[in-house]
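Posting for a labmate who doesn't have an account.
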Amino acid sequence: MRILITGGLGFIGRALAKRLLDENAHQLVLLDTLSPQVHGENPSYPDLLSHPNVRFLKGSVCDRSLVRDALAGVSAVYHLAAETGTGQSMDEIQRYYDTNVMGTAILLEEVVKEPSLRPKALVLSSSRSVYGEGAYALSEDDGFEVTSRIYPSGRSATDMQQGSFEFLRDGRPLTPIPTKETDKIDPNSIYAASKYAQEQMCQIACSTVGISFTALRLQNVYGPGQSLRNPYTGILSIFTNTLKQGGSIDIFEDGEESRDFVYIDDVTRAFRLALDVPASPDNIINVGTGNRHTVSEIVGLLERKIGVSGRSYISGRFRPGDIRHCFADVSRMNRILGFKAETPLIDGLSATVDWALNQPAELDRSDAANRELEALVRRN
């Protein structure tokens, strides 16, 4: 099968390409702009770019002629190309809109207008960020059964500046519960809004022309190969790079914010399985472990793995548009993909750190990114 991967040299794209090549049954077209923010100034991926079954096209998904060239003869498309980063998206709105929304529009317009460029299937890399704060219920301390789901709106900058990070309902604390695909959609950042727009655009366009469409709403993906230089996404890689260079980790809020961390090998397996599922309205699928871990817990595991201590502090700072908690209900993933994430956090984290410690040193850009976020908060 001939398969196009947009964003094919990104973290997930490279890992997915290697999985597909291992099957010895596919020819791949990799389209990637090679953004210096993610890849550095002179990236090199000889294991992929020298492979006889790989064709690489350097450029943007917004380049219509390049997209048309990339689509020629493909049977399936993995659409991964996107700007990523919740905080940065709030300050670079046009950049995120251009790549994520307009780039998707150009891709879809080509396959709708030209039947010869039309793949049989399209799989979109979406995000858990579309849920906003996700699903909650009243505190389990009250001994209740979950009979109704609560969807709190995004937190205000004023509340967070005062150190109020959790949600209350009538003075009672809310407890996060696994978020389902049928739960309320409530994007709280430009990035999240752009990912939901991608989902809707793809679903409408693909159904119009008979392309099988699946969207995978990824939780927090991590693992070897994640950019160590991009300070806007991937907290495991950001924190590891900081500790590797003797720096200190600034833990935002109170450190109790939590995420569902899913290992890269599990994610690429989900992508591979998604290519073969029959078309269905239910093909909007969470990809995660179904478990949540706090940021403080992650930092503690990293410090123990690297063999350091006392190299983190809780600053109370926060990212505009960020969420408090989110973890996935994975029952639909289990049912439709026949898949369960298999990599325990401690094993995946250990493999990630081992890889990162053997990589060239990258300038720690986290302080500069934090200053940008502080300037955004002050403007508000």
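Reply:
Got it, the structure tokens are right above this. The radius of gyration is 20 Å.
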